[in-house]
Amino acid sequence: MDPHTIETWACTYHGLHDGTKVTIKAARDDSHPEPYGWTCTCGVSRRFSTYSDCDRSALRHAYPTLLDRLRQRATRLFRTRRTR
Questions:
Q1: Contact criterion met (CB below 8 Å) for 36 and 28
Q2: CA distance 80 to 24
Q3: Reduced to 3 DSSP states, what percent helix, strand and coil does the chain have, rounded to the nearest 5?
Q4: How far apart are CA 8 and CA 27, in angstroms?
Q5: Cα angle vertex 27, ends 44, 62, to 5°?
Q6: How far apart are CA 1 and CA 81, in angstroms?
Q7: What phi and psi values does residue 50 have, to the nearest 5 degrees?
Q8: What phi and psi values does residue 72 have, to the nearest 5 degrees?
Q9: Is 40:23 a contact under the CB 8 Å cutoff?
Q10: By Cβ atoms counted within 10 A, which residue in 30, 61, 63, 84 is the most buried?
């Protein structure tokens, strides 16, 4: 690790994805152009320039709104229809 790189943990969320427990860790890493980012144990990660955008996105990933859940369900249905 570069001695000039600073990485600090900002927050951790716990949620569910399709019945599977996931953990989302948000951190600040000064080595990236967008210093704030989060990673989920489901494999998704995102980067942001402000802490509030990162926090809001991580929270919404852990606890999706009703509209988000409907959108995810529609995506899964259309994806399985095309493969049949």
A1: yes
A2: 27
A3: 35, 35, 30
A4: 6
A5: 45
A6: 46
A7: -125, 155
A8: -65, -40
A9: yes
A10: 61
Answer whether 64's CB lies under 8 Å from 27's CB. Answer: no
Determine how many CB atoms are found less than 10 A away from the CB of residue 15. 18
Q: Which residues of the chain have pLDDT under 70?
A: 1-7, 9, 80-84
Beta strands in the chain (DSSP E): 7-17, 20-29, 36-40, 45-48
Give per-residue pLDDT as tens, 32-49.
Answer: 889 999 999 989 899 999
Tokens of 3: 């001695």
How many angstroms separate the CA atoms of 23 and 12, rounded?
A: 7
Claim: this prediction has a pTM higher than 0.85:
no
